[in-house]
């Protein structure tokens, strides 16, 4: 299943592949997407970084990615990560890679001392909604939005 894939932190060399996959994610959602390499570089590697990213590769080929945005519940003293983008290339879907990417996001969040990961999805994407619930994410309103409380590592 997912043993054919390597999931790691995004590097500047990954930006061209992120642009292609981000545009494909936009097309999947019917958005007119035009990802900007300079903006992704600024947001992932600037001081301070605005986004955090993971990329999945199968050999040298891009297989998927996740972009995360820090969030917080200041009133509770809790840090979190919002999974802003998750994408798996179409011909590799159904092999557990999406689940592996989300698991890697959760591990990344734990390493940042985050208490939760949140995810939003398109209201019509019932498959994603079911997958998130199967992975322990609780539905939140307004939504569809989901949140998973993380146990300490």
UniProtKB/TrEMBL annotation:
Any single Pfam family the record assigns to this protein? Acetyltransf_1
What are the entry keywords? Acyltransferase, Transferase
Q: Which residues are in the N-acetyltransferase domain?
A: 5-153
What InterPro entries does UniProt report for this protein, alphabetically?
Answer: Acyl_CoA_acyltransferase (IPR016181), Bact_Acetyltransf (IPR050832), GNAT_dom (IPR000182)
- Per its UniProt record, what CDD domains does this chain match? NAT_SF
Keyword Acyltransferase (UniProt): yes
Q: What is this protein called?
A: GNAT family N-acetyltransferase
Originating species: Loktanella gaetbuli
């Amino acid at each position: 299943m997912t043993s054919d894939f390597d999931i790691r932190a995004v590097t500047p060399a990954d930006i061209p592949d992120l642009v292609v996959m981000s545009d494909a994610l936009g097309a999947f959602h019917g958005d007119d997407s035009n990802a900007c390499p300079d903006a992704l570089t600024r947001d992932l590697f600037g001081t301070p970084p605005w986004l955090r990213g993971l990329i999945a590769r199968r050999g040298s080929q891009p297989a998927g990615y996740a972009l995360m945005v820090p969030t917080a519940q200041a009133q509770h003293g809790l840090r979190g990560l919002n999974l802003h983008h998750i994408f798996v290339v179409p011909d590799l879907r159904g092999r557990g890679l999406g689940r592996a990417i989300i698991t890697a996001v959760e591990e990344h969040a734990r390493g940042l001392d985050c208490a939760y990961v949140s995810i939003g999805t398109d209201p019509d994407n019932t498959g994603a909604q079911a997958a998130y619930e199967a992975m322990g994410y609780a539905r939140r309103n307004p939504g569809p939005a989901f949140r998973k409380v993380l146990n300490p590592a």
